[in-house]
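Supplementary Text 2. Reproducibility record for the structural model of the 317-residue chain.

All settings were left at their defaults, and a single model was retained for analysis rather than an ensemble. We include the record here because the model underlies the residue-level annotations in Supplementary Table 4.
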Amino acid sequence: MERHIVRYGDLKPCRTAFIDAHTPGSDQKENFTIIGGGVSESPDQHVHIKDTPGFNIGAAGQPPKCKNSLHTHRTAEVFFVLKGRWRFFWGRWGTAGEVVLEEGDIFNIPTGVFRGFENVGTDYGMIMSILGGDDSGGGVIWAPQVIEEAKDHGLILGENGILYDSKKGEGPPDNVKPMPLLTDEELQAFPEVPASKVVPNFVQRYWNLMAMASGAPVKVIGAEGIIADRPGFEVELLTRGSIPETPYSSNRHEVLMVMRGHWRLTWNGRETVLAPGDTCSLPPGFDRSLVPSMTGEASLYRVVNTDDPAGPTHALM
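Retained model, structure tokens:
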């Protein structure tokens, strides 16, 4: 049972996961791959659970004022704030729009839009991520200025998606060219979307969801979700007042991501307790029960795979 659980206290960070690992202002961030290899560009990245259920789970931990540089993905990217206060910004230069998220808030970032994020809290913060697809679309697409600035600080991204550190004497092999910069013509395909269009349609606040989930799980992202989308997975919020009928079974892969409180999970005759920040991957076909084990606030996000293809699904323009 424990091999399907990644405890928050056991998370292994990578400080060299991406091309901006040496760039001032971004050089203190830590990346975690919890389920699946994600989109890390470094062979040093530790993968906790390699088998993917149709999506990847990861996390980013950053001290105050640390930024993650502008990039985009070919599949969905969903974040919720586990700890701290975070500013998300987007657009070619990060100036098209922004929103500040508090703990528990969730953001289904539109595909095809350059995005970055920054810890604007006073302490080390953590955001949890869900990336669509088993291979997450083959990697990260960086804004051109990110690649150019990284090169000034010794990091070169090869066309093969591997990161090379010139400060360590590394460089792409002769048969591998550096990742080309997007041309002005290619950049026209990345929309500049105002916050007035993004925030109402792609952001949900934790306390609003908690109120809606007082009697039954609330479907946050999905074909019938509050955020209507088909990214290859669905996301629900469960609370003390909306636990599923127990025991229950599922023919889908479920991933439980605890936000608040402690949850007692019984599965296939075994029992454990999940704490805030823990991630549990439940395969289909097993009876399981899930109940809060203590009094007080209790919530978790449940992610379930669907038959929808992972890819761009948002109609922004």
